[in-house]
């Protein structure tokens, strides 16, 4: 039996004209009046700010990890990378509700008729598709990366990096195209009684909730709230999170371990753990700040890298390669620039929070330096090579 066919809630046909509302030339209407230029404009402004922040902090992270020759990255402030990368990841996550709300607000435009009015209009629409695609791609791959879920067949860092240029390029053109419209809609007071503010506040609150339940991964006082963060300060051996355990890295404690200083030096050096402990040791309060956004401050004790390099007679401008006992893996070596190894806070740490390093934290010896991405704080160090 055929009952009354209910009209679709989403699509409604009407000839009414209401100002501001997204309207399709075919006369197709969308029932929620929040598919609205004003809402779209505000969400667009917020998203523009969020994506620009993510782009800038992302570039900082990229160039800190792969500095071009001319770039001397500073070793201070100690917490700089912790802040920029926290902003990148936590800000990026908080963008998700904005992005979803924006897509929902403007999706009726997908059904625009005719789909293309002119060459210019066609190009404009194509650009919007690029923008939407790149945005979704960045957010999705970023989230998967934090979860170590490499569901994609490409290397995350490289793809995420290059896609960001496509995204920011498309964003700049989009802003240029929409600027006058956005100005017009945002500056003019609305005439209708539509409750946009409620909708925008809800979206803003959702964003804030994501940020608040993640920021604890970088800001210890809020650690209890970090429901969305896979790693948190305070959780892990010696109160510091571990990304890669000794077991996962295939590293076991080696009783015959020695630390060697080699390469372009006046004299090669070799130390047992006791030898190192007999040298003047320092203590420093420094964070581990992972590219995934989590970070944890800790007190490290150990020997200054610069003391060892001076003992070996290394050139002041030398670059240093730190080698781990770990055999494979992307992070078994790292580079230390002159500016970083001259910093008195750059240590080959033996102690963490007052105890000898746990094997998972790099026992017997790990590098810890100020303002440096976690991936460069090499664990299980066995050799310091002067280049
Ligand atoms: N040898 C080695 N050192 C390493 C890693 C690694 O995989 N191998 N991981 C790095 C990463 S990604 C981070 S964030 C820091 C801190 O990680 P942890 O908590 O596992 O010590 O150590 C770094 N040092
Ligand atoms: Mo990391």
TrEMBL record:
<feature type="transmembrane region" description="Helical">
    <location>
        <begin position="199"/>
        <end position="219"/>
    </location>
</feature>
<dbReference type="InterPro" id="IPR016174">
    <property type="entry name" value="Di-haem_cyt_TM"/>
</dbReference>
<protein>
    <submittedName>
        <fullName>Molybdopterin-dependent oxidoreductase</fullName>
    </submittedName>
</protein>
<keyword id="KW-0812">Transmembrane</keyword>
<feature type="transmembrane region" description="Helical">
    <location>
        <begin position="126"/>
        <end position="150"/>
    </location>
</feature>
<feature type="domain" description="Oxidoreductase molybdopterin-binding">
    <location>
        <begin position="255"/>
        <end position="386"/>
    </location>
</feature>
<dbReference type="InterPro" id="IPR000572">
    <property type="entry name" value="OxRdtase_Mopterin-bd_dom"/>
</dbReference>
<dbReference type="InterPro" id="IPR008335">
    <property type="entry name" value="Mopterin_OxRdtase_euk"/>
</dbReference>
<dbReference type="Pfam" id="PF00174">
    <property type="entry name" value="Oxidored_molyb"/>
</dbReference>
<feature type="transmembrane region" description="Helical">
    <location>
        <begin position="39"/>
        <end position="63"/>
    </location>
</feature>
<feature type="transmembrane region" description="Helical">
    <location>
        <begin position="162"/>
        <end position="179"/>
    </location>
</feature>
<feature type="transmembrane region" description="Helical">
    <location>
        <begin position="83"/>
        <end position="105"/>
    </location>
</feature>
<keyword id="KW-1133">Transmembrane helix</keyword>
<dbReference type="InterPro" id="IPR036374">
    <property type="entry name" value="OxRdtase_Mopterin-bd_sf"/>
</dbReference>
<keyword id="KW-0472">Membrane</keyword>
